[in-house]
């Protein structure tokens, strides 16, 4: 019986590529780069969303306080007119207004403004009397 020698099998080129140190370093670098990019995008989104939320809250608070002060100084009729003026200036129809009377109920006059533009109401808290 002739002695048959097994032929030594060399791994394929793909296996050699995957097992090389250069490929492993490149893969590690790609994973670290991807993680850093995702972290940067997350921090950027978080900061932007927080800033926009604070600016929006500040604008709403300033508008509500200005209208509440106007209502305190001039009365509910002038306040309703101010709301109607602001609704007339809102070309996009995005304003939301709701007026309360001194007893804490929804006021009667702003319904005219709300009827002209459904869904537009301002949240102005009722004034407490000492």
Describe this structure in words.
By secondary structure, the chain is mostly helical. Helices cover 62% and strands 0% of the residues. The chain contains four helices and no strands. α2 (21-74) packs across α3. The longest helix has 54 residues, at 21-74. The chain is rod-shaped and about 115 Å long. It starts with 12 loop residues before the first helix and ends in a 14-residue tail after the last helix. The relative contact order is 0.09. Mean pLDDT is 78; it is low at 109-122 and 125-130.
Please describe the topology of this protein:
Layout: H1 13-18, H2 21-74, H3 76-89, H4 110-116
Task: Provide a compact summary of the structure.
With 130 residues, this protein is mainly alpha-helical. The chain has helices at 13-18, 21-74, 76-89, 110-116. α2 (21-74) packs across α3 (76-89).
Radius of gyration: 34 Å
Q: Helical proportion?
A: 55-70%
Question: How large a portion of the residues is in β-strands, by DSSP E?
Answer: under 5%
Q: Calculate the terminal CA-CA distance, rounded to whole Å.
A: 116 Å
Low-pLDDT parts are 109-122, 125-130
| Element-by-element helix/strand order | HHHH
Coarse shape:
rod-shaped
| Largest sheet, strands/sense/barrel | none
Number of helices: 4
Give the mean pLDDT: 78
Query: Could you tell me the number of beta strands?
Result: 0
Structural class: mainly alpha
């Amino acid at each position: 019986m002739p002695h048959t020698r097994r032929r030594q099998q060399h791994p394929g080129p793909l296996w050699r590529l995957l097992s090389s140190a250069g490929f492993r370093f490149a893969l590690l670098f790609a994973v670290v780069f991807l993680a850093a990019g995702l972290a940067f995008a997350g921090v950027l989104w978080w900061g932007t969303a927080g800033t926009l939320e604070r600016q929006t809250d500040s604008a709403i608070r300033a508008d509500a306080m200005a209208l509440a002060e106007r209502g305190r100084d001039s009365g509910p009729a002038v306040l309703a007119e101010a709301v109607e003026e602001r609704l007339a200036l809102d070309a996009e129809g995005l304003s939301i207004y709701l007026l309360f009377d001194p007893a804490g109920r929804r006021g009667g006059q702003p319904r005219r403004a709300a009827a002209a533009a459904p869904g537009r109401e301002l949240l102005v808290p009722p004034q407490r009397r000492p």
